Here is the input.
Amino acid sequence: MSVKNRVSAGYGMVDITPPVGEFGSLRLAPNKRSLGVHDKLYANAFYLTNENQSLFMVSVDTAVLLESVVERIKAGIADKTGMPAWQILVAATHTHNGAELLGEEPFVDTTVQVDRVVEACIEAAETAFSEKFSARIGWGYLELPGFAKNRFQNGQGGDVGLVDDRLDFLKVEDEDGNYKGIVWHFAAHPTTCMRAGFLTSADYYGVANKLAVEKLGGFSVFFNGACGNINPELGRRTFERAAFYGKQIADKLAETVPQTKTVSEGCLASTQTCVEIPLTDKRKEMVLPDDRDEIMAYFKDIETREIAFTEEAYEEHWELYQRLRCSWWRHKLVEEFGDIDSESVCIQAHRILGHLMVATPGEMFIELQFELQKAFDDNRAMLFGYANGYCGYVPDAKSFDADSYETNPTIMHRAGQYAGEKMIEKGIELLRAL
Here is the structure.
């Protein structure tokens, strides 16, 4: 192998933990405000390069990142490093206990939160770029049978075991074989502590990262997969459950990572394109409720709304909050997309050694991961979700027909019946071109 394929790597991390009282993402609390910090959140940047090509992999502890935010991050990294956008992968971990960056409701100003995350990602990437070292890398994997559940199938009376049990990790050492860290990929929603005390948290993967660093040293960076219909839990959600799941992962990593072999030379390649995906045709039957005034009145004072720190108080406000939030999303679908029948999304393809990656902006159903893997007999192929933007839930064509939260039309559930298959088809095409 040519000397030009000798790899170097770098890593950077910046704290993005939101202060107490700041708006939280998704279902942290009906009044949107964090009541405290259970564990810290970070922007992590991993840099990998040889003399032929380079790749930045930026993992952000937040629910989602809009395309406009990703573009700012990539522009800042490009300004600091000279790397083009197609060599920069920016993905949200999808923790439901992080800062509000989506602007999912009216009157919620996310400027401060977004600016903090953008600046942190750029700083982390600059550190990774400037502190790179001659490296050795190698892929490993482990199985987590019974860890994840298919929540969509559970709701439809199907097979809750329809999941991908495999966790893949990239082990990184310096040129002398000293351990430096891992980048790992698994598909499961970080929702195990979603309603536990309204506290900021990186959920089960945050526990796994912390324990992996304690057990192995170095760094540990998580990227989520096709987890649109996959949860670790289907019942009560607590920090104890997050710790239980995170420890399972860390214990297995501690056993497996040291046994994984590494090499100093290897293939690295990236490319990207845009693809037009259909928007849901269920909009044709959608009737907007006459509740816009109620929505505006409710959310206008949400910042100052006081909700007691009890389970009973949460449940009392939750039903109203959820109804108005989802109704607002339906209004936004009509406002933003109207009669438009398709949406352009970014698809990236990356290769590191023999492993293949397709990065997509949606909450992809696990069936689409199976479709991707089926196209490559001799290589592991992985879907990276929540990457380079956000286009909501993306069910496979069969699941689209069902009546469910993930398939009923709103701004967050706007993908059409064959959107996922189109994205996978394009990803396969890009990978084969590499």
User: Anything to note?
Assistant: The mean pLDDT is 93. Residues 27 and 149 are 20 Å apart (CA to CA).
